[in-house]
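[Meeting: bench + compute handoff]

Bench side (C.D.) handed over the final construct sequence. Compute side (W.E.) agreed to return the predicted structure before the next meeting so the bench team could plan truncations. Sequence as handed over:
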Amino acid sequence: MNTGRPGTGPRSAGPVPVTAVVPCYRCAATVRRAVASIAGQVSRPAQVILVDDCSNDGTLEVLRDVQGTLGEHWVTVVALDENRGAGSARNAGWNAASGDYVAFLDADDVWHPRKLEIQYAFMRSRPDIVLSGHAHARIAEGASLGRPLADSGHRMISLAQLLLSNRFVTPSAMVRRDIAHRFLEGARHMEDHLLWLEIASSGAPVARLNETLAFVYKPQFGASGLSANLADMEKAELGNYRLLKERGAISATAMRILQGYSLAKFARRLLIAAFRS
């Protein structure tokens, strides 16, 4: 289906200059599915980097097996010597990337087959934009990833909008490799939102594509994984606002207002999690 974007025709003759980075922590059960969605891209990335965050449970052996199956020329495995969190694992992959752009995929999520084709074409046509994301959806195990794309176009995302809420999930993000910003080292919660905020507060344009090009298999809040710890997520979000205030990106008044708003959202998430339990 033609979405009206440049470069959205049949399968590309060669790979696009994008590095796909997948942080892995005890992800042996899901990482093959994630990598399969990368290998199934209409426009495949030039490089895939799988980062084992010191899993110590056999995950590294699975990553090596994936590398052996798909080829060392395409898949690089980075093994961290201590567990540092997903943000630091993404940074390790980002620092080893050779593509002009870096796209992130979590080991328990997947991409639509046309994700890189559409998003790379957009980023290439708008070199002023250093960060873009897109819509995502929750799907059931075994559901088809090749869903029709009906909602083309994009919108610019302001710093004010990002301050109020995270406008896209990490598996939807693509950044220019050469920017100076990185995920906060050692952070284990809300580190993606902080990175988007730091990029936007620097004055760099941020965009969100309307197409649904990433899929998750669990609820955003109150499920297994890092997002299950709502209290830690809230603490991290409040800390993000303090850090932005310390760096001069927002005023003390704005920080207090945002923290109050965040606490209200936290109460709502607790209620949602309680109803699901």
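W.E. noted at the follow-up: The first helix runs from residue 31 to 39. C.D. will use this when planning the next construct.
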